[in-house]
Write a structure and sequence with these properties.
Layout: H1 8-18, H2 24-29, H3 42-52, E1 57-58, E2 62-68, E3 71-76, H4 82-101, E4 110-113, E5 119-123, E6 126-127, H5 130-137, H6 183-194, H7 205-213, H8 215-227, E7 238-243, E8 246-251, H9 258-265
Antiparallel strand pairs: 1-2, 2-3, 3-5, 4-5, 6-7, 7-8
């Protein structure tokens, strides 16, 4: 059977054909529909709700709609008025430019955007759980293992389960066992020591050795150091995608950097 590869622009055209009546061009033309007394982006919000259904998630200046199993739409929308909508547009712009410039697999793919960055069409990502960091990166997020590792197959009543990531640990771990490291602490270290504009970090040899041994952490450092990506320490800012048949933890919201925080949220 011949395998057909669908390109990024083809995906958005296929979606428009599937969702009869919806057009990204029309959504873009509704950019100026807002009220000083109401929320920024009211007409775009109404249009999306009409054709895409209810909002999937709200953020401080953006909301998301589900387009398909593998695509979402991020819409700049400020419940507190046009200023916060501008923050959402700026985050969309930063996210797209970072996706273009940074040669890293840790960012969701972006398929489409409008001229003013009122919306992005992105790869859909499953929200990551704390245990995913333990399973795929070998370090629990908050320093406590959440799942027992065992090389024994599951036995009736034993509770032992073959979960497939013993190779990430130097020994078997029991659920609830403490670890002298945590992904939260490592990411906090990176944010304090590498994010552009941050100057409150203190060098730590142990963390530097961990970063040197982990390609994933090296990619996070590159995003923080070269592109000012911030908000690294929240587990809900990460998600899972399937890349080349392997699960990968990626950054969900790369549009929030030091400059966005300083200009809109400080």
């Amino acid at each position: 059977m011949k395998r057909i590869i669908i390109g990024e622009s083809q995906k958005t055209r296929l979606f428009e054909a599937y969702r009869e009546g919806f057009s990204f061009d029309t959504l873009a033309m509704l950019y100026d529909g807002w009220s000083n007394e109401g929320s920024g982006g009211e007409l775009q919000m109404e249009y999306c709700e009409k054709y895409l259904g209810p909002v999937q998630n709200y953020g401080s200046s953006r909301c998301t709609f589900t387009l398909s199993d593998n695509m979402i739409l991020k819409l700049a929308y400020g419940e507190r008025g046009e200023f916060m909508r501008e923050a959402g547009m700026e985050q969309n712009r930063v996210e797209f430019e970072l996706y273009q410039k940074a040669d890293t697999p840790l960012l969701p793919r972006i398929y489409k955007h409008d001229e003013n960055f009122t919306f992005l069409v992105c790869e859909s990502v499953v929200p990551a759980r704390e245990i995913d960091f333990e399973q795929y990166l070998g370090v629990p997020f908050y320093g406590v293992y959440r799942q027992r590792t065992s090389k024994q197959p599951r036995r009736m009543g034993s509770g032992d389960v073959e979960i497939g990531f013993d190779k990430y640990f130097d020994d078997l771990k029991d659920e609830g066992e403490f670890c002298d490291l945590s992904m939260d602490a490592i990411l906090s270290y990176i944010q304090c020591n590498y994010v552009q504009g941050s100057d409150d970090g203190v060098p730590n040899r142990q963390y530097e050795e961990l970063i040197e041994d982990s390609w994933w952490l090296q990619e996070i450092v590159k995003l923080a150091k070269n592109y000012g990506m911030s908000d690294l320490c929240q587990p809900d800012n990460y998600g899972l995608v399937n890349r080349d048949g392997e699960p990968l933890i990626v950054v969900l919201d790369s549009g929030f950097n030091h400059d966005v925080w300083k200009n809109y949220y400080q």
